[in-house]
């Protein structure tokens, strides 16, 4: 590792020192003594900054008490990826709408809701408008299925409580890589959704098309799953580039 006085300085000393510590932890967990040696900083300084970074969840402690990168960094990384997701969604959703003739959306989970963060509406005829910013239930609909299906066990169990879908349905979603719903969230409407993944492989969003059952039929996945999955793959690839 490179000592701190050989690194580029921003001119803001305390931030530079905190960054040195994070840089060192990128290689893996480290004890206080190892951080002191790696950064070249005084032991009291390293301890004070490492504890402060722990308070803000930028640093954590492992079972041996060593310092390691904290969960907040992963959350910030996901947020940055989600911003790239929104930027890339416009062209992909427009293309999806044009191919299927149905409204298309991207949903992201926020707490107990799924939120529409991008959409492309049908230009003519009946519109099933879901404006950007709309909050919908995580208990019904194909996008909710996608956003729940790959959660860890505890969140999966919680997501199934009072849901319109079942564990068996979510197992099918994971197996085939897409979800469909017919009258699940709203009577008379159907939808198809597929997962968008971060560079680490985590499902961070769902791409959907939605419309009346009269057009999408009671087997909407049979008609549109392939093209919806292709759109999701395009957005996943955009996050990697």
UniProtKB/TrEMBL annotation:
This is IclR family transcriptional regulator. GO terms for biological process: negative regulation of DNA-templated transcription. Keywords: DNA-binding, Transcription, Transcription regulation. SMART domains: HTH_ICLR. Residues 72-241 form the IclR-ED domain. Residues 12-71 form the HTH iclR-type domain. It holds the Pfam family HTH_IclR. PANTHER family: HELIX-TURN-HELIX TRANSCRIPTIONAL REGULATOR, ICLR FAMILY (PTHR30136), TRANSCRIPTIONAL REGULATORY PROTEIN (PTHR30136:SF39). One of its GO terms (molecular function) is DNA binding. InterPro entries: GAF-like_dom_sf, HTH_MetabolicPath_Reg, Tscrpt_reg_IclR_C, Tscrpt_reg_IclR_N, WH-like_DNA-bd_sf, WH_DNA-bd_sf.
